Amino acid sequence: MKQSKIEWTEATWNPSIGCDKISAGCKHCYAEVMAKRLQAMKSPDYENAFKFKIIPDRLETPLRVKKPTKFFVNSMSDLFHEEMPFEFLDKVFETIRKSPRHTYQILTKREKVLESYFQNRTVPDNVWLGVTVEIKSKKNRIDVLRDVDAKIRFLSVEPLLESLGKIDLTDIHWVIVGGESGHGARPMKPEWAIDIQEQCDEQDVSFFFKQWGAWGEDGQRRSKKANGRFLLGKEWNEEPSFEIAFA
Ligand code: SF4
Fold it and tell me: Is 169 exposed, middle or buried (0-12, 13-18, 19+ CB in 10 A)?
């Protein structure tokens, strides 16, 4: 287990690593940068940098953690990568079922694989299932997610690259919005983020504003830390509403 700096989780668990870019949001993939760095440091498992691979040795890691923990599953990969064997995924979900004290946040950009995997399987109650929607043309991922019977469904709107327009948030419990950081980061306009916050408010969905990223609310480039996490003069740290989700 690794403690995480990601604002909306507590720890990361990576039973697989590596990935391939499939979406506009992947352009400056943080996991790829990290994987190359780890390869240069000769870190175990990263001999092929960002090439997808499963790591069976890590399958039971969360079982050894006694304290109830919120895990982001696969900060270094996409759990529903096309090369992920379903038999291995079954083992990942077996660990999840065996540890109901933990919460597992799973996020994917591969809605087709997600749909196919859960066609004849159920989602454990301690899973929060999410899709990334960084541009308008990927809103179809929300419809696929909605059809999967998960207790908590969420959207990661990060990096937000354009206005998403009207979003149907029916049966979605949580939306995370954030701008891009790092080299070559693309700016997020305040009106795009505010529009999503307002739609969450109207549709009674929890809203989390993660960060501005490299470009501030005023359109100026500076450090991620200096740009901060304020939107409309406050921090938004809402979490999914269980009363609604478990009703
Ligand atoms: S899906 Fe995620 S991990 Fe994979 S390349 Fe895109 S951003 Fe990186």
Answer: buried
Number of domains making up the chain:
2
Query: Considering 126, 146, 166, which residue would you say is the last residue of a domain?
Result: 146
| Among candidate residues 146, 181, 215, the one where a domain is terminated | 146
CA-to-CA distance for 92 and 82, rounded, in angstroms?
16
> Ligand 1 pocket, 82 CB below 6 A?
no
198: helix, strand or coil:
helix
Q: For 52-76, how does the pLDDT look when each residue is reduced to its tens digit (9 = 90+)?
A: 999 999 999 999 999 999 999 999 9
- Model pTM score: 0.95
Query: CB of 236 within 8 A of CB of 197?
Result: yes
Pairing of strands 11-13, 70-73: parallel
The residue whose CA has the least distance to atom 7 of ligand 1 is 26
**CA distance to 17, 24, 39, 45, 110, per residue, from 51 (Å):** 8, 19, 11, 10, 17
